[in-house]
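FAQ: What does the model actually see?

It sees only this:
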Amino acid sequence: MTQHQDFKIRLAAVLTDLQESGADDGEAMFLLGSLAAGLADDLKSSDWLTAKRTMTPQTRDDVLRTFQDQGNLHHREGRARQAYAIQSLTMSLIAGSLRDDPEIAAGEPLLDQIIAAAEANFRRAFPRPN
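And it is asked to produce this:
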């Protein structure tokens, strides 16, 4: 199996999980929204989708490396929800670079909708300071 095929399987699994049960896990969605909002703020973007769309390839690679390190740490230390939130954002970033694949291109906006909703809920609960 190629890395590309493996990614498609993982993307489908994450989407299925988010649609079936992940979105009902308030803590996981809060963590996802918090992470998306924090990263957008760090990158001086209005939201996650804008940050994702406007980041340079170098920034994207740096973020992915950080996600890999942090995701692995959370996983090792048993913090599944934090690892899950990082995995979701990682999948979104990677999917954005593989849009030439029709299945990935179809899955990316579904994942991004969930992330955007989680971020919007987080920002409603914790508005940016003026």
